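#struct-pred
JK: can someone run the complex with zinc ion? inputs below
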Amino acid sequence: MNNIVKIFDTTLRDGEQSPGATMTSAEKLELARNLSRLGVDVIEAGFPAASPDDLEAVKRIAQEVGNYEVNGHTPVICGLARTSKKDIDAAWEGVQLAARPRIHTFIATSDIHMQYKLKMSRDEVMQKTYEMVSYAHSLCEDIEFSPEDAGRSEPEFLYQVLGEAIRAGATTLNIPDTVGYTTPEEFGALIRGIITHTPGVENCTVSVHCHDDLGLATANTLAGILAGARQAEVTINGIGERAGNTSLEEVVMALNTRHPIFGLETHIDTTQIMRLSRMVSNYTGIVVQPNKAIVGANAFAHEAGIHQDGLLKHQQTYEIMRPESVGLNQSQMVLGKHSGRHAFKNRMLELGYNLTEEESEQLFNRFKNLADKKKTITNADLEALVSDELYQPREIFAIDGLQVACGTMGMPTATVRLRGPQGEIFTKAAIGTGPVDAAYKAIDAITQSPNQLLEFTVHAITEGIDALGEVTVRIEQIDSSHTKTTQTEREMRRTFGGYGADTDIIVASAKAYLAAVNKMLVANEALQAAANTHQQTAPQSA
Ligand code: KIV
Ligand code: ZN
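RT: done, structure tokens with the ligand placed:
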């Protein structure tokens, strides 16, 4: 049996289904580029039938990342589709321009999903699987099939459905534990059963896709791999529906660190893991918990005296992995105030940012401003500048000025000046419980977009008094109209993440908040446009 585990990254699809994780298409493209540099074998770029925006993002990734070789390897670009012609056509439209396109189609196979959600019998599901996998295969060579909720499906029935998918042309069989219900023993046994009993499985790759509802996603994925699966579906930081998906960094580092147990390899360059983790956190606004394995801020921090003493005597007393192996503690001092455009551009290239002239110039100016305030600029600072400067959502409102007064002597007050969509200038002042609250109130008074602040996180990127501060926020829209349809209401309650970086923490906070508000306004525009189109095309009642 082959000893490579293919890493299938679904951060851009299942990961983006996390509440509030919506990314702009520029962010998605940049993330896909960096996933390719990380060495993932397959990038699930999106669900093209979900919206025109998703389709466009998948197309761009297919064209720009799916035709670009990095370290002798071009990733497969995959689009998700339900087992319907419309979805499969959209997925094919999305991925067809990639050098190595894949369509991933799925249908539920658990009794509970078939009876209540699909209202289909087992025979109908088998027939649909054969028909739609055949159809997808008539368009695209490389077909992946998933029996959704496989973890709760009857194994004998699964063997039959998977057999139909293989007969119709599927070459990757992905086994999802959709609701994160199974235990490692059960999931391993399920994979072993599939490999033993499914007709034609010997010519296919068996894949595992686990959710973390019971905190078992990584354990289940590893059990599946031990049972013979050779593709793992994962996301960076484990983001995804509900409790999330299996995290890429955990699976890859488990396979590396416990190599004698698994005897398996991946194509991942593990030294890029921290960068990707920060990038995903910045773009989605989803903060990584400090004690998260591998990428949490405390994952390599040693507090107890006994541990510190042990470490100083021998690193392996308390560290099973070297921080450098995931990209921590690498030489950070890169540029300073006297660095020129050339050095700057080279450094950005080394960090994986292939900037246009215009972007490079825009960023270089920001870098110079920062270098005036801060002696040394690290890689993490540069990455923060990229997120803050280039990958912000479309700006409906932009900050034109901000001033705060705070302290113990009076009421915290903020005056905010924003540039509106037509270039008009709005100025408002507000009082708050602190300067950030006051600034947010002033922004609310201008943007008139009611929301609730769910999360606010601030942290210094580097040490020292001159550190660049990063702020991540998550907001939830408050719908005051009461006239929406159920579907729209649900969408209206979506959450939005925002990110901002600056040496002034209040400015970073205002930027992060405005970025989230802008994302919300853009999403509302899109919803409104979709509702208008629907009204125009819906048959009129007499
Ligand atoms: O969790 C799941 O079942 C999925 C499928 C679409 C593979 O994400
Ligand atoms: Zn999933």
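RT: quick notes.
The chain has four domains: 6-284, 301-330, 331-390, 398-529.
Residues 14, 106, 146, 148, 174, 176, 178, 209, 211 surround 3-methyl-2-oxobutanoic acid (ligand 1) (CB under 6 Å).
JK: thanks, will look after standup
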